[in-house]
Task: structure prediction
Amino acid sequence: MPAPIDFYFDFTSPYGYIFAQHIDDLAARHGRSTVWHPFLLGMAFKTTGAVALPEIPLKGEYALRDIQRSARFMGVPYRHPTRFPLPTQNAARSFYWLQDRHGALAKPFALACLRALFVEDRDISSPAVVLDVAAAVGVDRAALEQALADPAVKDRLRSETEAAIARGVFGSPFTFIDGEPFWGGDRMPQIERWLATGGF
Amino acid sequence: MPAPIDFYFDFTSPYGYIFAQHIDDLAARHGRSTVWHPFLLGMAFKTTGAVALPEIPLKGEYALRDIQRSARFMGVPYRHPTRFPLPTQNAARSFYWLQDRHGALAKPFALACLRALFVEDRDISSPAVVLDVAAAVGVDRAALEQALADPAVKDRLRSETEAAIARGVFGSPFTFIDGEPFWGGDRMPQIERWLATGGF
Result:
């Protein structure tokens, strides 16, 4: 059984959202499973000196256009969020808490969160919105609300983010296949060939 | 007759080099010509605040790996230059001087310069190397040597670079199709579809 594909993303990354709609199907076509790793891109940006796309002259304007064109190209619905980028701690902490306790709900929750932000224009930085999204996919709202106040849950996300950066992750989405790193959803053609051929 | 495709690149950009091997064939498949626009990426970086890839923690190491993998993926020979990045004024000034006086030699010269840097590991920041490369494709070496000292030739590159930045160019390669901007060689699948369908 080949190793799973590691998929890193920040919940506020449009390119991460677009890629998340395809990565599991892509992996399955090659007999692979995936492990999803939400992390805080802002912490990685402190290492690389990067700043959020909308703040960059020229590149920020281009990115807004490219994101929407890339979504159309990939057949993914997209509505640029009113609040963008936004803090994603609550969504990411919820994901790891779910993964540890109700594993089968973690990916459906993540996809619902991404949809809430990038299709429904809901502010997923808000704990109340995250709890609503979680409840709608079958999560015990009260238990998750309690978890979000737990220092251990906060520590979990911090150490996951530190581990991602230590592994070389500096952007979203970021994928590892048998140790080979691929930054960006636009590496999908290379990822496909890598999976088909075992490397090139 | 559809409008030509505008292709912007810096001679020290590996992704620009890889893309340059394909852009004219790609355009021709869709009945298009191309206009090549070398420019100075460093001037664009002053606008965006970007720094050269090798200086960026995590991203720099990734880029080196990604460049070589992308070259293999695209079937393009690549040897990472000993001196990288390097100043490209002499190559770019020569290009525009050729384009104005001996238009048919401009692209062969550009391709030979890129090959000198990214296959033969020659230092194309050196005027002598640029003159050698030019002479090998049939350029009058003495006339070009004289041109490289001409303030008008320097001004030409500066204004071409300013015009590129004014148009929104902030990276290499950068392509416009009927006004639609595409940054990066990894946008080739989108470019193909755009040319085939007239937009999506």
